[in-house]
Structures
1.
Amino acid sequence: MKEKTFSLIELAIYYIVIFFILREWLVPVMELTNTGFLELIMLFIALCLVLSLFQIHFLISGLIKFAYIIWFIVFVYGGVFVLSAEGIDFLFNDFQTNIAAVLRADWLHITNPFRTFLFFILIWMLIYLIHHWIVVRMSVFYFLLLTVFFVGTLDTFTEYDGSFAIVRVMVLGLALTVFLLVKRLLKQANITLDLKKYLKLAVPAILLVFVMSSIAIYLPKFSPQWPDPVPFIKSATGQGGAEVNGGGISKVGYGENDSRLGGSFVADDTVVFLAESETKQYWRIETKDRYTSKGWEDSGYFQGELSVFEHQQIIETSLPVGPEEDTKTATVEVVNPYDFIIQPYGMKSVTSAMVSVLPNLEFMLSLDTEKIVTYVDRAPTELPGYTLEYSKPVYLYSTLKNPTEEIDPVLFERYLQLPDTLPTRVRDLAAEIVGIRETPYDKARAIEMYFKQNGFRYETDNVAIPSEEQDYVDQFLFDTKIGYCDNFSTSMVVLLRSLGIPARWVKGFAGGDVIDNHGSSSTYQITNNDAHSWVEAYIPNVGWMNFEPTIGFNNSRSIEYDLSTDDYEEEVLTVEEETEPDEKIEKETEPKKTAAEESQFFENIAKFFEQNKYILIGILLLALVGAFILYKIRRKWLPKVYGKLYRRKELNESRFEASFLQLLKLLEMKGFKRKEGQTLQAFAKEVDSYFENGHMSLLTAAYEQTIYSKDASAVNVLQMRESWEYLINQITS
């Protein structure tokens, strides 16, 4: 009884240390993902450790753990009692939604409750693995190594400060290593100690660990002797956006600092948001009006003045809105949260389901940039999703060709600004492009087409950065002619302003890719790769109108050609060279929708394999290498596997013959193989000579007696069982 109590106390000490080490895993994850309920997750870990400590039957312990997980999910995400009708309904609906998403391989629509469920299962498996390391292997070296690597990586590449976390992990890990080392030595020596003697061995070593750790913390330390590799690693992996001016590589995506444009960037397919709408369109975020010769800044023309709009209230911007009867809705599901609204052209209002829990929700429109930020109690707030009402403006071609409005230069002074250092040849080029064209629309259209017809190339690699004396636009127009959206859009704005046409630079996202169809609407997936910039020019009589000068991108404006003209064919031809118009895509894919829906599951699987082919190839190669290694060392591990299987089958009279043949198979795996023509008795003597006993000869005699006499009852099964188990243990040791 004392020995059992001692073992229980010993194991409890191990689990207490493991509990605090696991806490060091959870804390940074909770901090970096802004996830709450750390105490409840730690309670689950404690529950698992307690159930493992008292060796509760796996069925009972499994039910308890599963019940806790279900309670946590319903409590956190449903806010209702788990056994209530609402709680059961919540679980059933969530289960149904996620099973459907998994079968479609639609990983983006896996819900947060299901992700939490998988996270708990991962913790469950991890604790089971740790129990195996402690009780069977009596070593936590690999677990300790992984923990230090995990915390160190987060400390290096994220905002988490893991300095003291690593110290705590090392102290706790070394203390646990001491306990397990003492236990392993005692077991090897077959020595049994009581608690007092055990502590006399372990405590001095543990005190030494704590003393040496304390000394190491407070001793003076040399400064780093090698250069910090982190900036280089971040730059190589595309996180060196701040280093662009020094020749680094940026990662594509929306950012707020555009004062220094230029340089290469790397792709990033991280999903930003999903949009469900009837047509593909551009998603506007903000405009900038001051060109500095190196990039764009906000002039602060309105000195930061804001307009406040409430939930479902009409939002008034400087952009035109289409007719009331053409009003449509678009639903935005934000995956990578921002605290601003993503705006379609012709946006009228924003509706959010969060207003029920955030009654003070407001939308603040900056008059300087027209960026709309969501606020709750005057603090910027991220919304997980919202619905937009919009009516896309339609421009009459007759109005564009026959402007009657006189543009007031004073009113649009901010949109005609150009730096004094702008080279004269930029202005000369603008005049040359438009030639004899008279209307602002014709001039803007000529500049838009200029880039597509004069040897410019869209590239994201090896894009030049202007030197201190160079102008960003001048370098692109005359020296390189290579760049991406920032180069094209900025150049068009500058060329328009050179001609006295008010223009501004716009940032946002392009339309993305269709990932699902449902009736008249489609779901578009917009990633960081879709971050984009384009142009808005003020055209008399119609107001601000969007233009797309970047090669490979399709403009999203709608023009009604109420006059006979060749411009319509020209515009459609230009678009078809790059991407098919939204309307045409819908017409062409309409007959295929049924087939696409029927094969959606297989298409998603194919897409998954295409996107992750290199990872899958790597995993396959590792699996092949692992299988080859396992095959080469099969004599070491295969007998142990078979030994465990055979021990589960009790040796009796009816199974004696089969058990003996299984023993011969195990011996062959171990390297003992009968020679051709060798008798069983001669083979048994060789085995007995190796193991220095006579158990194999006894078993062989009993086997031959069973075979030849056809009477297994004459065999002393109890004695044979002892010999059989002894040989199994020797072979698999």
2.
Amino acid sequence: MSAVPVLVVVGAGPRGTGLLERIAANAPELLGPGVELDVHLVDPHPPGGGRIWRRAQSPLLRMNSMAEDVTMFTDERTTMDGPVRPGPSLAEWAADPAAHPPHLPVEDPEVAAELRTLAPTDFPTRRVQSAYLDWTLRRAAAELPDNVRLFVHRDTALRITGDPAGPQRVHLSGTVLLADRVVLALGHLDSAPGPDTAAARAFAARHGRSYLPPAFTADADLSGLAPGEHVLVRGLGLAFVDLVALLTEGRGGRFTPRPGGGLRYHPSGREPVLHAGSRRGVPYHAKTGYRLQGPPPPLPRHFGPDLELPDGTIEFKRDLWPAMAKEIGFGYYHELFHGHPERTALPWAEFLAAHDRLPWYGPERAALVAAAVPDPEDRLDLERLDRPLAGLRAGSPAELQQHLRAHLRADLARRSDLRHSADLGAFHALLSLYGQLVRLLPVHPLTARSTAAELDGWWQGFFSFYASGPPGFRLEQLLALSDAGLLHFLGPDLRVDLDEQHGTFRASSPALPGHHVHGTALVDAFLPRHDLGRTGDPLLRHLLREGRIDEEELTDPDGHRYRSGLVRTDPDARLLDPALDGRPHPRRTALGAPTTTRAPAAFARPRTDAPSFRQNDAVARRLLTELQKEE
């Protein structure tokens, strides 16, 4: 091994970029005098944005966050040992790129034009985020101290070999890198279609129909969906929103303002006809278009490090959710009482004292809220939020469409009306919950059943539904497409059957008893869930085949098992190696989406103590300390 320690980071997207920023921030303190370090970033896609945030994608695809709510930099709220290196949010950088060195003009004229007019509350295109991530990587590289050299390889890592006690060999398609430490920062990965899609795939092949399994929409081949074809869509989340954009405006249609408000859609004639539904039956809530009217809620309050939990494995809904729900309630009512005191009937201190004392579930808390908040529409109802169409029965398809359009209009009105800024207080609490879970779960593991059904299932779905929705204008577009007859809502608890007699996919919902919709194509509009056994990443496939990584598998005392599809890591993000009897590999680390840290978001809202920033800092400090000893 060379006298200069070497770190290889596989993945140069947002997570690899964030780790490099933390290396630059911590190296002056942790690398001793005269100690050098070589850092190699490996990624076949453009560094900074990586595959998901690459510039080469449709300008129709946007972020689901406002420009002012996106940052790659730590701040005074980040709980970490390393130094804070403040940096601009996407909005601050876009306002004056030349004020933030190192400055290079943005080459794409369309992206440069968007940057010139981007407002803090705009929802940028993903291409603008790519430019911001590219600049972030260049800034991190420029801030590396003189004793740290950076090498970027536009290449694919295929294998890692080497004894745990010696150098690691990272085999790229064009060369081999010798490393003292290796970090996998692979981001969101594809998986081959699983057995749950086998029947649909076989049916489509047998009848000459189209079936698209879960995929990142920007990479999906939509050419098989013909103009005028009736297409069934499962899923109403962000992948669905992107799908709709590409199949409408992406095929030449146009939206124009309608007199009196709303939008009108002008078809190109090349659009398919979409019939869409899901478990809830409604699209994700639109993002709020306003700021808090009161001070930010001081979080955490009920769901933080002091939470008392039973020994041994726990259950999410039973042991965690009551405190989590109470935290959401605190965030909501903190904003209602401070931002809109005229709509409350008790002093905040009196309400808070009782709210702190009473359990979330129970008649006492319900009575407190009824006394303190006169208007029922101002009261937080998490169950109604979770299942807004529960019990819905429509008399006809037209009645169902009317109900769903009314729901979208009401959601749009609420998310754009400052009177309802308490919803944003609940949103802040949800972000806090996510960060606290990352800290808590390694210490208090969940049962296999609870992890599958409640953490990876219900909670992830509820969080995304409430907190990860699209910009409001996307719901306006859905309404316009519904008016134009190109989008029909199928309702909640969607069921899709394979109709062998007619050779079509058949959709139904209990909201419209006895009614079925037939389609000649089916799209599963979900982001693919990573499954290590079916991963599309060649490096992970090699490590799995060689028995050097394995998938998280949880087993309950009664024998119930759950395989999450995630790569097992320890709390310090070291890869757990089956060849070492499941102990951490001393030279291999993995971060981000496909790992059991369950902290996939690589960038965050400012001043939210983002889990990924905390993890990047801890890993950077550990690696620098270890690498100094390698010299």
3.
Amino acid sequence: MSDTTKSPLPREVADAYVDALVALDPVTGTYLGVKESSSSLPDTSPAGQEALAELARETLARLDEAERRPGADSDIERRCARLLRERLTAELAVHEADEGLRTVGNMHTSVHSVREVFTITPAGTEEDWAAITERLRAVPTALRGYRDSLALGLERKLYAGPRATATFVEQLTEWADTDGRGHGWFEEFASKGPDSLRPGLDEAARAATAAVVELRDWLREVYAPTVEGTPNTVGRERYARWARYFNGTDLDLDEAYAYGWSEYHRLLGEMKTEAEKVLPGAATPWVALAHLDEHGTHIEGVDEVRVWLQDLMDEAIEALDGTHFELAERVRKVESCIAPPGSAAAPYYTAPSADFSRPGRTWLPTMGQTRFPVYDLVSTWYHEGVPGHHLQLAQWAHVADDLSHYQATVGGVSANAEGWALYAERLMDELGFLTDPERRLGYLDAQMMRAVRVIIDIGMHLELEIPQDSPFHPGERWTPELAQEFFGSHSSRPADFVESELVRYLSMPGQAIGYKLGERAWLQGRENAKQRHGEAFDAKAWHMAALSQGSLGLDDLVDELSRL
């Protein structure tokens, strides 16, 4: 037998995994603030994917040993081991099903990661820009590796959906020519660099743009014709695999679908009440929201909306810190940013680096707009910024030394984080921050969007029947076309947003349901803790303990939240 007294504990195994992962994936290294990662990109080829999988297998074997070591059953080691085992098992299931050979979409591909990492790569010094130049030179190889993965998928008849493929081709076209004059995104990015490095920067940026064009042309001329006629949806087996990956639990998909409908009916009633305050006699809540698009409170100007969103987050921090949360000084800093052209339509958040040298940032895609309705922004920034993603992910970074580096960073479960952010929106409503009818109707509209996501994401991928009590096509079976129509008629978002969202759901099956199902897990955990403590329940203490335990899949999350 092996001597378990000499083997590492689970947290040590997890952190060794992070170190090895950074060596294989410099994009992850940059997100973690590892300066040495700035000059390179990961191997996106089939061989690179297999190297990541082998690291996961080796780590799981080491974890088996670590869990037998004395002390491995402490709360902090147990939580880390639960997360590491669940995450690596879910990732291996996706890899071993060859999903990485047909990953095409408008958000969740290695090509998107390659572009987006430049927006957070350090760029303050000439040395930083020298590293960026080397990273730009690595773009063609990274894009070829991605193409090699898709080509192997074609050989094995593992096809992505035609709709996601067409959208991705459109995105690559925009990245290759952002200004309509042949000036690509990488060239625009490189133009901000120092003149002393100009020749090398420009040459590397042009090569990166040429690689984007080459990939775009291959997708358009080879890949798209081959996958034509492939279903855009994935079916129950593939959906269940991806749902485990994004949610950290083996879901009862039919129960989750029914829950989505129950939330739809509850929210619709609340929306009708608020809509009557906004526009008396409005036929539907979305008529009232359309009225707000024209006549409601607006922010004019792109930079003006960036500043307004910054003020909104700063005000939330001042109101919540010391009353409902206890925030470290470095967690109190978050930056409002405008997303680069060619991004997906949805706002997003990027976490701070491990040492907080790069702060947490919220990103608003403007989609060419210069006028922004307030109702559509407030609860969204409670979600993306404070008390949503920023408070959770920055707190993880703040307490990383008490957890493991893995729990605070790369071990994140999408449904945990998105569930917290949606819970944060609801918390702000509970605390009285959304009493204005415009803002509260906007909040309910955002909640409705998350309920609709559960319905259509599960419904269309599994081709489920629409219930008889539905006001929309009762008794029919879901298709992407019906899903888009339903989303459009139950959302204040413009048509291009709805289109972008639907492609996202088609190419990231099981991810979008994590918002509402994750919120349910957070609410259940809080309710269980309340019942356990009775009148002694301290919401502020519970929130901070909950935010300081790192990531967990939804099954484990409810269990651990209930213990706090």
4.
Amino acid sequence: MTGSIIGNQNPLVGTTYTYEIKPSGLSFGLKSDYEWYLYKKQKNGIWKDITNKPKRGEKVTYRFGEIGLGIEFQMKVYEIKKGILPGMSATKELAGSCILVPTSDKVSKIEKVILFNRGAKDVNKASYRDTLIAQAHCIAMFNKEIEFHLWEDDAPGKGHDANINKNNRHTRSYKARVNEKGIAEVSIPLMSDEKILRQMANQFLMKGDRNEGANHEYYVTATYSGKIQGASQVNVDVANPDDKGQPQNQPQPKSQPGTQTPKFPTKHGGGPKQPDPKGNIIEALFIDDTGNELSKVAVGDKVRVRIHSKNMVGKHIQYVVWEYDSTSNDEVYRSGNIKIPADVCDTSGFIITKAIFEKGVDSPIGDPDSDKQNYFIEIISKDLSAESQKFGVNSEGLMQVEKVKSAAGVQNTQKPDKPGSCICQEQYKDLIWGGKVSCEFRKKVVQICAELWGENRKMEMANGLMAVMNVETSGSFKAQQLEGWNSTKDPKKMTIKDFWKEGNRKSSRAIGLIQFTQDALQNNLKEYKSNPKLSVEERFDELNKLKLEYAQMGEIKQLDKVKKYFEPQKNNIKSPEDIYLSVFAPIGVGKSDDFILYQKNDNPQNNKEKTSNKNYNANKSVDEENNNDKKIQRREILGRYNISFSRGSGNKPKTFNCENAITIPESSPPKSTKWHDPVDNPMLCLYTQNGNYRPRYNVFGTVRKERSNHNHQGIDFLALPGSNAYACVDAYVEFISIQSGYGNVICLKVKDPKEFLKRKRDFSLQYSNMGEIQSGSGFSFNGDFYLFYAHLQEVEKSLKAKQEVSCGTIIGKNGTSGYGQTKDPHLHFEIRSSATGGGLTNRCHPGIFVYYKDENTMSQKEKDYQKEIAQKFWD
């Protein structure tokens, strides 16, 4: 007979509830414990055990997030009866169960819609080469689909007039689902639809205007269930390429074709050009004389242009090479007219002379980047009236040109990387204040921000954190930076006396990168606990001992403490400015710029007013620097941060010395362990089956949000058909079979689990905000381990079930069985604690044991290699 569970069966999301089991009878001679399990009802009606670790006791607590809103859960409690007399064995039986359906006390709505240019210094300005970000901030709408539309604004003043702008909506829509943080986000690449957008923007004018002027103004609307629920209030100004600087009260002259432009009429005897709908330029890229693609050259080098076309044989084209700049582009070379001889055409090319290079220099005096340029290609069809097409404008396609030939020389996809290539140069070159710190420091800061706030926001938040640390350390970026000192001391020579403020034995200096205080060490990091049995001075000596450890641990290790400080409050930190507020004035995190943090009060009535008064006095200089109204608003306290951020933009890294860190895995594997990687040079697949660049698809977790089945149960390592798959350790063949979706598979049982565990490392997730996880439910590090290999072309014919195989044995050839043609040929590899199990159950992230290269640690050559592979289907 079971008891009953007491607790709320319709818990509000975000609220913690207590649940209690009431036993129904007596248990003579037995003592009881209770285990709590939670099951989630799937779409097919089957209950799935989602218990990670059972809760224990008669009374427990549960808290459901918004991700569980409206989903049916089943709670089960089992009574574990342990015999207290000799010979009595423990028993386990169901003690109670109930159904839970989380609800929300919030009305579903779109609270705010914003449009901004994430990559720009001014997020409200852009060019047609930029990608805008649209966000809808929602309440109680998890997993709902939001549709965005882009509009050009011709209404005067602030706000939008639907009647005036009725013809200004972009034809394309963008869709996204609301994530667990309540945000739906889409990217809007302007360049892909530049022609359509410019035509739309120039078609209608604001009342009284003669032309569109220097900018086109854009906003977005967010639609749910066919109804517009909100619109962005602040427009993004996109530079108008058609603006010639004419005053708006003067009619703009019509553009005329160039008088020197050759014409190729489509009919004998002349006549107007006619569009050829079958004509198509597919791609254009820079190559060298041997046909290898170029990514970096120097003045004096020869470059050629390769053009891939379709149905263009016999047609005439011209290519133009442009120097790319964030604000303007300069033409550096224009070819003559070229008659397309075949679908793939390699031009004769040209030499990049000093004169050509100087055409791309905007301001050679004082320009730190005047020794380097980036080029892209424009293809102009001479026979057709089709729009010209640009290739290589994005960051992956630009070719870098150096004024002086570097030691690396010309780089292409076929030659190996030179020693000293640095990941910072590829990914962290735009980190503000990056010039003040090491490559290792830069990488660590960005990694921390990716883990705290997600891969998509890592650079945005990393810039904010760097600005904060610059303020807090007075620009030193040193772990031993003491509060109130303009310089740092050798940490080896520091003592606890250095932390006492002069003339005041009851105050201790803050320390380090974000100026850790007693409050931070005691409440945020939980590393200090004041002992009331000690005297005041003794307690401060204990505190200062801990601070001395912080000063002497070095910057890289202290960055782990920085991360630990922000972890409990990461969900409340919505912007880089909030990072600063969480350190300097936590009361202002998430508030508006007008929010009053502290104010002067001559007669405080309560502790809250007294605290505000005390904080005001400590920061009154901030108020005096502004309007001196006896109030300190959020925007005032952010003044130092904004100055730091602005100055940091001029202190980006200029030197890189990672010593080939780009090809070194995150941590080195233990040398004593007997091990062979499952494939040669294990690299994460960067592309999907259809050739889309989406690395997160191929790691472990609920990472495939765009598919009905979000789960990916292992990791996909790049492996061409016919390459070898290896036994990682000494093992036994558990089974060999053919499975739906997996094709030819083999499963090995690890012979020595304890030896296998020596491979275990502290593994950092790259895409935790997008579903990547360490392990699924039921997985255990205590017990057996199974290695599962899938999509094999064939399993080694001599292998049989229960047969022993040694480490490094070739167990099969990699292939594409189970799904056929693909643009990401790979080995699907799993590590399990049970030979069977559905979904993510009983599985862990293979990266805990396999030291593989991800998109942040593989070389550019390896990335280019994967890109090349993804250009065709393999089977």
